[in-house]
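REQUEST FORM: STRUCTURE PREDICTION
Request ID: SP-0412
Submitted by: Lab K.M.
Chain count: 1
Length (residues): 79
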Amino acid sequence: MKNSGTEIDAAGERKKTQIKNGKGTFLVQILSRRNATWQGTVTWVERNESINFRSALELLKIIDSSYENKNENEKVFKV
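STATUS: Completed
RESULT:
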């Protein structure tokens, strides 16, 4: 995966990173860090589809689920 572009606000709490995995570009927005993990929103840029996540593991599962989708008309993100 490639990272491109990172933004950190003055408090250092919010970050935005684009992740390219060969199938799509994902915009990951980290809204907070609690319980030793991240909470935020991930958006599949090409489909303009977003979902919230509660942990880094859940974020990885969401991005991984995009590989399972064969039909481009289906909703892709799932946990």
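NOTES: DSSP finds one helix and five strands in the chain.
Reviewed by: T.R.
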